[in-house]
Each structure stands twice: as structure tokens, then as C-alpha cells.
Write a structure and sequence with these properties.
Elements: E1 7-8, H1 10-17, H2 21-31, E2 37-38, E3 44-47, H3 48-62, H4 67-71, H5 77-88, H6 92-104, H7 108-119, H8 124-144, H9 150-171, E4 181-187, H10 194-205, E5 209-217, E6 232-237, H11 247-257, E7 264-269, E8 285-287, H12 291-297
Parallel strand pairs: 4-5, 4-6, 6-7, 7-8
Antiparallel strand pairs: 1-3, 2-3
Helix pairs in contact: 3-5, 3-6, 6-7, 6-9, 8-9, 9-10
């Protein structure tokens, strides 16, 4: 059975293109731009070709072409016009659409070719911040609105992870800038590791010793890492776990098991940090809104 999603509701088209469903209906009725099929209950359903066409139309429209002019183009002329605009202007919208299509179609080759076009002119840091972060943020909304499945999310996330791994290996240095060690981990039952993976790349880029432990690490498993004389900076990313009911107890346990035994710190990022009680958290635990805040606070 093919995993490619082949039919889309008008709400799916709105979510993926950014064009309101009401506007899509008007374009469809007035200009005959799309030709949906209808279910027995008269609900519009659109093909993958319709989605691809709408994404191309969106690019032309956002670059100043009037919808009446776009409607006069033949179907085969639309992608040609898109390529002309890409040659003349910013490729950002088109690249984002290409990444979305690679996800919808489970098309690894499209993801790689799009990335390879970007890397000609941009650094990996720029690609991650300008493309991958917005893409991944949008994934959450697309998943919540049932436009994509968990399978789509895992597919595109793992491709991004591969790029993080590859670029981390490229910038890793054999000599470190000082004897401070960073230990990056996700608490027990936390599996959302992309954020901490990218932070591992940033640390390697700057020449720091970074020990990446990955997903679901119990506090007790961190104790061997405080045996040396090096100053240790623990960094954890908390997206789902510990939950808001458990996060403050978790920090107290971390203090007792780790921080009270060694001159070290814990830096915390992620969605669950909003539930940290700043009045009771240990002094040597820092809470940060994002990568930039943490990097600035640690003077990296």
C-alpha cells in the first residue's frame, strides 16, 4: 500500500499553502484554477496534482502576479513561470513548499535536492534557522489539524536529523577551547531530541567538548559524568517530560543527586520550562526560552 497521501480537503490546502479556504473557493469558481472531486456528501476533495498546482500558484501570487493573470496561464506554463521567478527573486517560499511536498510524498530525493540548492549559498546554521525551524514549527500545527500524520512528521524530522548529524561531524574539532564539558541529554521518557541535537552542533562548531547522551536518560545514569575534575554543564531539553506536575520535583531530585555532589550547572530549555517555579528552583539551574538565550547566557 502506498504511503503517499493522494487526496486533500480544502482545509488541508489552506494549511499547506497559507491561502484561506474562502479564497481558494473563489479562485476555483471564478477562474477554474482547481477542479476538485466531490464525495457523496458533496465535500470537495483535491488531488496531489491540485495541491502542487496551488503551491505554485501561491508562489506566483505572493510575488506580485495577479490571480487573473495566473488563471490565463496553461497548466504546463505555471511551473515555467515559477522557475523564472526563482531565478530572479528569493527562493525561500519555493524551498519551503518543496520541503512540504517532500514530506507529503515521502520523497527523500526532493528533500535532498532542495537542501543541496540551499547549501550553495547558505551555511548550515542559516538553513536550520531560516528553513528547518519554521518548517518544524509548522509541522506541529499541521499534525494537530490532521493535515499530516505522525508518519509524515517522523519522515521529515529524521531527514533533518541526518543533516544535523552530518554537519556536526564536519565541524567537530580534535582540540577543545577549554576544559568545560557540556553534557546534553533528554530526561527519562522524553524522546524529542532534535532541539538538543542542534545545540550539540552549535557547541561543536564553537570547539567545546560536548557529550551527547540522547533520549530518555534517568538522573542516576548521569552520576558517572561528575567524577572528573572538569566543570560540567548539563543541558536538558524538556518538550513533554517531565510533565508540568512533575517538573519541579524533577529539579529538586536533580539537585540532590547531581548538583549537590559537584560544582556544576543544569540549563533547561523546551516547552515544559514554562511550568518551572522560579521561586523554588535551585540557583544553579538556569531556565532559557531558546538557543540564542542559552548561548548568550553561557558566553559561548
Amino acid at each position: 500500500m502506498s504511503l503517499v497521501k493522494k487526496t486533500f480537503s480544502i482545509k488541508d490546502l489552506e494549511n499547506l499553502s497559507g491561502i484561506k479556504a474562502h479564497t481558494i473557493r473563489i479562485w476555483e469558481k471564478r477562474y477554474n484554477l482547481l477542479s476538485p472531486e466531490r464525495t457523496k456528501t458533496n465535500i470537495r476533495m483535491y488531488s496531489l496534482l491540485s495541491l502542487q498546482k496551488l503551491l505554485n500558484i501561491t508562489l506566483l501570487y505572493e510575488n506580485g502576479l495577479k490571480i487573473s493573470k495566473i488563471a490565463q496561464l496553461k497548466n504546463e506554463e505555471i511551473p515555467i513561470k515559477v522557475r523564472e521567478i526563482i531565478d530572479e527573486k528569493s527562493v525561500k517560499n519555493n524551498m519551503m513548499n518543496a520541503f512540504k511536498l517532500s514530506m507529503i510524498n515521502f520523497d527523500q530525493n526532493l528533500f535532498y535536492s532542495t537542501y543541496n540548492q540551499l547549501v550553495v549559498d547558505l551555511s548550515f546554521r542559516e538553513i536550520f534557522k531560516e528553513y528547518f525551524i519554521p518548517l518544524l514549527q509548522e509541522l506541529g500545527y499541521l499534525w494537530q489539524s490532521n493535515t499530516i500524520s505522525t508518519t509524515h512528521e517522523h519522515f521529515i524530522t529524521n531527514l533533518v536529523k541526518q543533516k544535523v548529524y552530518t554537519n556536526t561531524e564536519k565541524v567537530h574539532r580534535s582540540e577543545y577551547v577549554n576544559n568545560k564539558s557540556f553534557v546534553l541529554f533528554l530526561p527519562e521518557n522524553e524522546i524529542h531530541e532534535l532541539g538538543i541535537l542542534y545545540l550539540n552542533y552549535e557547541l561543536n562548531l564553537r570547539g567545546y567538548k560536548s557529550i551527547f547522551l540522547g533520549q530518555s536518560v534517568p538522573i542516576e545514569n548521569l552520576e558517572p559524568l561528575i567524577a572528573s575534575n572538569e566543570f560540567v554543564e548539563f543541558i536538558a531539553y524538556v518538550t513533554v517530560e517531565p510533565s508540568k506536575e512533575k517538573i519541579n520535583n524533577y529539579l529538586q531530585k536533580f539537585k540532590k543527586k547531581i548538583l549537590d555532589k559537584k560544582n556544576c550547572r543544569l540549563s533547561l530549555l523546551g516547552f515544559q520550562t514554562q511550568f518551572v517555579d522560579l521561586n523554588t528552583k535551585p540557583e544553579n539551574i538556569g531556565v532559557y526560552r531558546g538557543f540564542e538565550d542559552l548561548i548568550e547566557a553561557l558566553n559561548l
